[in-house]
Amino acid sequence: MMVSVDRLGLPKGFVEQWPLWLVIFVVALQPVGRLPEVPILVMALFGLKDVVSCRRELFSNLGFRLFSLLFLCFWLPALASLPDAVNVEKGLSSTLGMLRFYLAGIFIIHRLDTLATHRLLSMAVAAILAFWALDGIVELLLGHDIFGLSSGSSLYITGIYGDNKRLGYALVAFLGVALAAMICKKQLVWSLSFSILMLFVVFISGTRMAWLALAWFVLIAAIVLWYAGYRPNRKYLAGALVMLLFVGAVGSQTPSVKQKVSASLAAFNGSSLDTASSGRISIWQTSVDMFSDNWINGVGVRGFRYAYADYSNPDDMFIHGEEQKIGAYHPHQIVLEMMAEMGVIGVTGLLGAVFIMIYLLKVLAAHTHRFSFLYAVGIATLLMPLNTHLSMYSSYWASLFWFLAALLFAAIRAEGIGANKH
């Protein structure tokens, strides 16, 4: 028997916004392991329904077409890598599993089709990120967050993420979405306060990957704005410099930052570059050797760890396992990941994705006051080749990347860029 909204006592608007709530749950549940997969799977099922029932409307929209093209840039190389994959079962499950992200993306593009919805989403994401950040500051002060969680190491501040080191990078990943509503409404004080909070917590998180990603976020936004004809006010530049100096001065006194900076500077004090980079140089050299031997279609998507021992030094610090030697899980660099696991085909797909993002940023340079601009800056940051990365095909990072990509193209649709909404 169906129960009416009135009998449940829920506001009608609350129920009508259920697609938005599903999207918000994906963000809010990020620190809770694989739990974000639940709303993603629900969205994928409804996304399949949308493809069947609304395909003509979807195909007429620029956002949907570009999202599909971007997805193919990563999915087709994964598919092409399967015939020579070192672990076919793992590669096949990863390749087929990507389809759920595509269908969930279609749901987001089709259902989040108004600016009011994106405004609510942006404010909700900003509130979630602010909570995560403040929770991280609590851990800095007390040694544990408000739930009693901690990283268990002085090297990192992880807040609600507990023993997982993703806090800093998660803040950067969602930053464009969180800032969008404040920037679009020209709320300078709120935007500045929120940015200082995010900058500080990303800094004290102790994750160098997040530091670099945040720097790329700012640089990409600055380049596009300059291209669009914006010239910064000297007062704003001075204020930004003061903000950076303040965050740097305070953050540099925390144990996590001190130890990470010392580790990074060790390369200039006699230590090897490999040690200073936490073994990244060894991983990258192994990636290049792997590509040289499998240059057409690589060792197979998600096969890096299984082929690692065959190309690394016998005493490599990342090799473990007895019956089957397994090495580092992924190359920690998007270009090397595509090279090693999918060969030239993978690199071609990555170049296609980069060209799509460059095209989008050029289009959105005329719409820098809109949601889609900051969304696009966030996605471009995640694709930036000159960065260290999580694996583009891991369930966590793939779900996050395609979720954010779908939000970008949903905003393009809602804003009517490139085609009519209906």
Question: Your description of this structure?
Answer:
With 422 residues, this protein is mainly alpha-helical. 68% of the residues lie in helices and 0% in strands. The chain contains 20 helices and no strands. The protein has helices at 5-8, 12-16, 18-28, 37-53, 55-59, 62-80, 88-111, 115-142, 167-173, 175-184, 188-204, 208-227, 234-251, 255-265, 273-276, 280-293, 304-311, 334-364, 371-383, 395-414. The protein is globular. 45% of the residues are buried. Mean pLDDT is 85; it is low at 1-5.
Quick structural gist:
The chain contains 20 helices and no strands. With about 425 residues, it is mainly α. The chain is globular, with a radius of gyration of 22 Å.
Keywords summarizing the entry:
single chain, 422 residues, mainly alpha, 20 helices, globular
